[in-house]
C-alpha cells in the first residue's frame, strides 16, 4: 500500500507548530520535579504551591534544560485521582500511556545513578541494550 493513498487531503499550508514540553501528571508535582532535576542535572525552573482547597502536595512544577543544552521542558501537574500505572501493561490495571526515552553514554552507570536518585528498575527488561526504570510515582522511562 502506498502511504500517500490514505493521506488526508490538506488544502492549506501547515502553520509553524513546535513541540516544546511534556506534561506528566502526578499526585506530588514538586517532589517528582525534584527527582527529575537531580536525575538529569537540570534546574527546577518553576514551582507553584497548591491552590485554594487543594491538598498540600498539589501544585505544579517545571524542569527545563540549562542554557545551551537541548531537551524538552518537563512539566509536572497535580492529578487528584492518581493511580500508579503498571508496566508492562496488564488487563484491569492502570496502564502507562507514555514514557520518556533517555539517551545515556554508559547504561550501567546511568542505571546506578537513577537508582540512587530514587528510581526503580522494572522487573521486565525486554531488550538487552535498554533499561526500563520507574520514577518514584511509577511512570516508566527507558535508558538506551
Task: Please describe what this structure looks like.
This protein is α/β, with parallel strands linked by helices and 144 residues long. The chain folds into 2 domains: 19-81, 2,3-Dihydroxybiphenyl 1,2-Dioxygenase, domain 1, CATH 3.10.180.10; 83-144, 2,3-Dihydroxybiphenyl 1,2-Dioxygenase, domain 1. Helices cover 16% and strands 24% of the residues. It has helices at 29-40, 107-117, and strands at residues 21-26, 44-48, 60-63, 73-78, 100-102, 120-121, 131-134, 140-143. The strands form 2 sheets. A 4-stranded mixed beta sheet has the order 1-4-3-2, covered by helices on one side. The mean pLDDT is 93.
Largest sheet: 4 strands, mixed
Mind telling me the C-alpha Rg? 18 Å
Task: Give the low-pLDDT segments.
Answer: none
Q: Which structural class should the secondary elements be placed in?
A: alpha/beta
Helix content: 10-25%
Query: What is the highest CATH level, the class of the largest domain?
Result: Alpha Beta
Domains, number: 2
Distance between the termini: 33 Å
The main sheet orders its strands as 1-4-3-2
Number of helices: 2
What's the total count of β strands?
Answer: 8
InterPro entries: Glyas_Bleomycin-R_OHBP_Dase, Glyoxalase_6, VOC_core
Keywords: Dioxygenase, Oxidoreductase
Region (Disordered): 47-66
Domain VOC: 18-144
Amino acid at each position: 500500500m502506498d502511504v500517500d493513498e490514505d493521506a488526508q487531503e490538506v488544502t492549506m499550508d501547515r502553520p509553524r507548530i513546535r513541540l516544546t514540553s511534556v506534561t506528566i501528571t502526578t499526585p506530588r508535582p514538586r517532589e517528582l520535579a525534584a527527582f527529575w532535576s537531580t536525575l538529569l542535572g537540570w534546574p527546577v525552573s518553576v514551582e507553584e504551591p497548591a491552590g485554594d482547597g487543594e491538598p498540600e502536595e498539589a501544585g505544579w512544577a517545571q524542569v527545563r534544560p540549562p542554557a545551551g543544552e537541548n531537551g524538552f521542558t518537563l512539566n509536572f501537574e497535580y492529578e487528584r485521582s492518581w493511580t500508579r500505572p503498571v508496566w508492562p501493561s496488564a488487563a484491569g490495571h492502570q496502564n502507562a500511556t507514555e514514557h520518556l526515552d533517555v539517551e545515556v553514554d554508559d547504561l550501567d552507570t546511568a542505571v546506578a545513578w537513577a537508582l540512587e536518585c530514587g528510581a526503580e528498575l522494572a522487573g521486565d527488561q525486554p531488550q538487552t541494550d535498554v533499561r526500563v526504570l520507574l520514577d518514584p510515582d511509577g511512570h516508566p522511562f527507558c535508558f538506551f
